[in-house]
Amino acid sequence: MQISREKPALTADDERRIFLAAAERVSAAVMEMPSPSPDKTISDLADTPLYGIFVSLKHGGRLRSCCGYLNPVATLGEALIHAADRAAKDDPRFPPIAAEELEYLKMEVWILWGKEEIAARGEDRAREVIVGKHGLQIAQGLYGGLLLPGVATEHGFDARTFLSQTCLKAGLPPDAWLRDDASVFRFEGYAIRGDFPWDKNEIRFPSQAGSFYPGSAGELDRALGRLFDDPRFRPPNGAPQRQSYAAAMVPHAGWVYSGHLAAAVLERVEFPERVVVLCPKHYPGGAGWAVAPHRRWRFPGGEVSSDPELAARLADGVQGLQLDAEAHRQEHAIEVQIPLLARLAPQARVVGISVGQGALDEALRFASQMADVLRDMPQRPLLIISSDMNHFADDGQTRRVDRLALDAIESLDPRRLYETVRENRISMCGMYPCAIVMETLRQLDALHRAELVGYATSAEVNGQRDRVVGYAGMLFE
Questions:
Q1: Residue 205 pLDDT
Q2: Which CATH architecture has domain 12-195?
Q3: b/e map of 41-71 (b: 16 or more CB within 10 Å)?
Q4: pTM, entire model
């Protein structure tokens, strides 16, 4: 390929598409997702010749990452892939970009062309540098470094200072540019700038990966294999026969404590096209009753689709329920279920609802109105209650009070559950979602039996019997 010394002829729409393609690569690398080919966005531009591309990311006005790809015969598509992927994870000066940072980032995509060696020597080199037009690159022996054209204008450098700073970037003395054995190059470039393209309602990024469950795609996949191979709570002859259920209850502690029980429950379910997960609200911020507005739930190495239309219908139909992303930003109780659902029902669309505590009559009204929304659907969604049982009593006391709550659930009476938990001060965090789901099923004439799949406490994992959390898995039909 012939070396191009001309500025690439890019239109405003071309620049917009390049910026979007870079952002897609950065976000995919951050989330350890399969990287989209930029050809889908810039297919007609991918073979454009240039010298290179740099992708720069800033957070709060401070540089967060800046990496590039340079080659005298580079193409735009090739350079963009390498620069964006490296900017996401591989700038050695900074930790990798985290998912929760993306919405706060500003990005620059630098288009570079016209690299040429400055033939002048000594002080005359400074006269060949035009601040605001040229970027600089220096090489001397094993040392080399580069500064983009924007560095000089951003910091108010004159040509000599710009040359000296390029030397320092290369690990050379600031006057190395004066030496004849140092090669100094100039190139031209400009930046496509903007906020990192982010729709907070597009993707719900994981906030608890690496805490409640593994943080990398490989570790998560192996952990899922262990959970579904765990013999506890599974039939003696192996994998259970799947069948249709109206609802399920699964625990939401860290996978090491309760993931095997959640897997054992969900593995028995024949999943419909949609799933609605209700969980207690654990964190401040956002609406008290919040349905997630996102279109996708992301986890390391994968994602699950949501159903924004159903979410909007629920928000419209249930008084007090709001479409709200903030309430779901840190919430773990739905997030920990997403990889399990992805493994068992990758095509299912998952709607998430977090519910703060309230009075019984409010729960019953919520359930009645949710039943009205679901009643005429051609295929009703599976309702999932995400809940742990009693918290932080000793093992014996926890098992005793949890049995009271489970008896109330098995009686199929949401009022009894509510009163039992309140009167016995059982810290079952998902009691309110459980009562809502039970009453919803009752309103739909779909609550006939509750089956206990299994029960455990955290003591079975860590051996600490004086302060435990209880976990139960149930199926409803």
A1: 82
A2: 2-Layer Sandwich (3.30)
A3: bbeebbebbbbbbbbbbbbeeeebbbbbbbb
A4: 0.74
